[in-house]
Structure to design on (592 residues):
């Protein structure tokens, strides 16, 4: 099988903190690897090692077959990095930022300009192209930062929490960008704290915690491990809650719970069941204030996998 | 919802030359990055205010307050002082390189450069080269002010130009010390403070203001070994006349030596910085 990048047994310590305690990560060409983990899990550290910005204390990693330490120069020809915090130059305009990167990638002045204009248009920044980046909103900066990492048409793209802090609409757009990058043949490493994001985008997910991979699989496999999805219903008229419970029981074969007055939840095995439940509620003429199919939260996933919630790490033993 | 990003249409991947395929990479990349520093300087010209006003204030204070007492004639003193002030000013202007570099490293701007297939030293060389224009601005402002209050060069324009270039070359070398500080230290303020502490004895511990033979013995010794004194001496010789060969040679040797030591140290420190 051909991997776009592969990391084995990466260890990285900062003083007494063990940021990575021996993790393996790999993605096949043209796929998205989701790296899912809470704050401090080691996501950024892993990305920085794969992007040649940090050297691992032990373990090895290759991108396109090139070692990230020994052949760092070769690796840098293949990758594009969008760090967790935007690293655009605030004093330069959007165009100047992108043209600079293009020039550093040995595009001719004309090609660099053309590429900058193309990316600015693609990320809807054309109107702001001539303004210094310090006047951009957070979301615009994010997009410019992502554009900067795409100037060289990299084969492998690292996106470190690309949607944290974006509003829901912008988040959906970012998802669209990731999908089109993959359609275009790139391989993407995407870190996130949200299971739904990993579920929506990733072909495979590595769940990391305290610098270790605690689970790896396709989104479907992980959801199975992590426990089923949940239907949540809150009827408009609280007195009809009994009828709703009957429908849920009939539809799923499981006993609904009443975590709060007026709100019913029931575990469900597959999406089709949800559709059936929705139809039956409709047929019975029951209005709803809330009706959703919920994935287990990251916290629930962690609870299942580790027996503890996704809290900040305390000291991790080496 | 206004879906602004046209996610369906991907920017084409065709026809881009692979990075790093052309020769003279370090020079070209450094120049591109120098262009970046230049844009930043031009966009915030107020950054140049302190380094251009400071020499003017010094000239005014020293010439009009002390000039009469020191050399009997304010005009003679202006001739004596101005070349040395030029050297001092340009050295102080060179601090900014280390300070802005530190800001860039802290802010993560350099992370992007470090993930590109360019020489590790290119961003550092770019910063130092890009700041050369600051030196030119400082010198131009100082000379303009000097001429307005009666300064005249005593040699010829070519020698004066040589003095300016020598000063700029030396400041370029000193910038690398600033770059090393900028890479090693934790905050721009710390870089600025440390650089000032280093530059005060180097620039004031000279015959900038009074002839060496009027100084106490230990200070005469310091002036003798201080490279900045050599550069001031050389600038003075080239601009108003006087001995030139010795000080110019020593200045050039110092310039080369400082670059040879501090540029590799700075690049090494930058490479190591996580
Ligand atoms: N430069 C550093 N110096 C000291 N400790 C560090 C450094 N970088 C990371 N760490 C520590 O290593 C651990 C992992 O950090 P990392 O940034 O990789 O986590 P993360 O998964 O990206 O977290 P987040 O979701 O908050 O971005 C944390 O405990 C962090 O404090
Ligand atoms: Mg992080």
């Amino acid at each position: 099988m051909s991997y776009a990048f592969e990391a084995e047994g990466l260890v990285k310590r900062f003083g007494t903190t063990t940021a990575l305690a021996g993790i393996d990560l790999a993605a096949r060409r043209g796929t998205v690897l989701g790296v899912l983990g809470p704050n401090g899990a080691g996501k950024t550290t892993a990305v920085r090692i794969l992007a040649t910005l940090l050297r691992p204390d032990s373990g090895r990693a290759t991108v396109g077959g090139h070692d990230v330490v020994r052949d760092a120069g070769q690796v840098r020809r293949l990758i594009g990095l969008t760090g967790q915090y935007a690293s655009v130059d605030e004093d330069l305009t959007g165009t100047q930022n992108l043209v600079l990167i293009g020039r550093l990638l040995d595009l001719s002045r004309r090609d660099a300009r053309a590429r900058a204009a193309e990316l600015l248009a693609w990320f809807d920044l054309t109107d702001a192209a001539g303004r210094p980046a310090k006047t951009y909103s957070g979301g615009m900066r994010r997009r410019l930062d992502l554009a900067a990492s795409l100037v060289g048409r990299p084969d492998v793209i690292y996106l470190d929490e690309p949607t944290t802090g974006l509003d829901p609409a912008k988040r959906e757009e970012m998802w669209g960008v990731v999908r089109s990058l993959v359609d275009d043949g790139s391989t993407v490493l995407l870190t996130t704290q949200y299971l739904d994001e990993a579920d929506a985008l990733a072909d495979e997910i590595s769940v990391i915690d305290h610098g270790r991979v605690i689970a790896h699989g396709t989104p479907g496999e992980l959801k199975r491990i992590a426990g089923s999805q949940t239907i949540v219903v809150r009827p408009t008229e609280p007195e009809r809650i009994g009828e709703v419970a009957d429908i849920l029981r009939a539809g799923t074969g499981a006993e609904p719970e009443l975590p709060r007055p007026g709100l019913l939840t029931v575990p469900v095995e597959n999406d089709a069941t949800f559709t059936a439940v929705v139809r039956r509620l409709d047929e019975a003429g029951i209005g709803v204030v809330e009706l959703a199919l919920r994935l287990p939260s990251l916290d629930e996933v962690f609870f299942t996998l580790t027996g503890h919630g996704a809290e900040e790490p305390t000291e991790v033993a080496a | 919802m206004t879906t602004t990003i046209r996610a369906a249409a991907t920017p084409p991947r065709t026809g881009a030359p692979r990075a790093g395929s052309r020769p003279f990479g370090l020079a070209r990349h450094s120049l591109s990055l120098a262009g970046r520093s230049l844009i930043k300087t031009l966009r915030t010209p107020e950054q140049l205010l302190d380094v251009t006003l400071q020499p003017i204030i010094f000239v005014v204070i020293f010439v009009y307050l002390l000039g009469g007492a020191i050399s009997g004639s304010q005009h003679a003193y202006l001739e004596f002082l101005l070349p040395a002030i030029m050297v001092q000013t340009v050295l102080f202007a060179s601090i900014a390189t280390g300070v802005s570099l530190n800001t860039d490293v802290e802010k993560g701007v350099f992370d992007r450069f470090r993930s590109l297939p360019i020489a590790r030293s290119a961003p550092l060389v770019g910063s130092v080269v890009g700041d050369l224009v600051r030196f030119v601005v400082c010198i131009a402002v100082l000379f303009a002010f000097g001429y307005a209050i009666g300064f005249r060069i005593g040699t010829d324009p070519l020698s004066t130009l040589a003095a300016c270039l020598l000063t700029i070359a030396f400041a370029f070398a000193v910038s690398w010390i600033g770059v090393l500080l900028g890479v090693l230290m934790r905050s721009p303020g710390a870089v600025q403070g440390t650089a000032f502490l280093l530059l005060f004895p180097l620039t004031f511990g000279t015959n900038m203001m009074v002839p060496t033979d009027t100084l106490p013995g230990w200070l005469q010794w310091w002036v003798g070994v201080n490279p900045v004194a050599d550069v001031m001496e050389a600038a003075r010789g080239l601009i108003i006349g006087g001995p030139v060969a010795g000080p110019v040679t020593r200045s050039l040797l110092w310039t080369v030596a400082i670059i040879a030591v501090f540029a590799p140290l700075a690049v090494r420190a930058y490479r190591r910085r996580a």
In short: Confidence is low (pLDDT under 50) at residues 1-20 of chain B. Chain B has one domain: 26-273.
